[in-house]
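Objective 1b. Sequence-to-structure analysis of TFIIS central domain-containing protein.
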Amino acid sequence: MEKHEFLELFEAASKAAKSALRGDVKNSPAVSRCVEAIKRLREAPESLAYEMVIDRKYPQIGKSHVLFTEHKRPRIQSEGKILYTLWMRYLYATGRNQSSRPRDRPVVKNKKKLVVVEEEMKISTTTGDSKRDKVREILYKALSKVANEVVVVEMMQRVVSCDSWSVAASVESAMLERLGSFEGAQKAKYRSILFNMGDSSNPDLRRKVLFGEISGERLVTMEKEEMASNKIQMEVQKIKEKARDKEENRVKSMMMFQSDSMIMT
C-alpha cells in the first residue's frame, strides 16, 4: 500500500462515517463503505501506518479518532476501536525500539523478540525480594494501560518514549524509602496507591506518573482524595460543599435565634 492509497482510504472512511451519522438506517450503504475502508486501512504496513499517524502534515488522521471510536453506529465504532488500538500498538512498539537504541538495547524486529526484550528489561529491574518485585509488577501493569488509553497523537508519542518498567521501579523505590517494607501499618498506604494506579476509572493518575508529572516521591505523600479519579474528587467536593452549606445555615439560624431572643428581652 502506498501513501496516496492510505490517504484515499482514510478520506473515504471519514466521509462515509459522517454520511452514516445522517438518517436512521442502521445498515445504510455509508456504514458498509466506512467499515470496508477501515478494514483496508488495517492492512497497511506497520511502517506506513506509523509514519502517517505521526506526520504533522496529516493531523486529521490522529485527531479524527473520535469520529470512528465514538460513532453512534456500532459497526463503525467497533471497527474504529480496532483500527486505533492497532495503530497505538504500532506507535508503542516502534517508539520503544527507537528509544532503546541510545541505551544499546537490541532493535526488535518481530513480536517474539519483543517479548524477549521485555523480559530482559523486567529482569534488570527486579530486586530479588518477592514482595518488592510484586509491587513493581502491579505498578508496571498499571502504567502499561496508558498506551491504550491516550488518543491524542502528541500523547501517543510521549507514551512510546517512556519506559514503564523503569518508572515502576522508581516509584516502588520511593515507596520503600518513604513507607518502609510492604507490611504492618504501611500496608494500607501501599494498597491505596496500587489500587488508585490500577483503577480503570483513574487514567489521569497513571498517565501523570508515567510522564513524570507526578514523581514517585510526590505520589507517596498524596492523600486518598488527591489520588482518586476526577469523578470521585468531584463527588467528594460536592459532599464537602453540602456539609459546609449545612453548617453555615445552622450558624445563621442560631444567630437569628439569639438576635430574636435579645429583641424579646
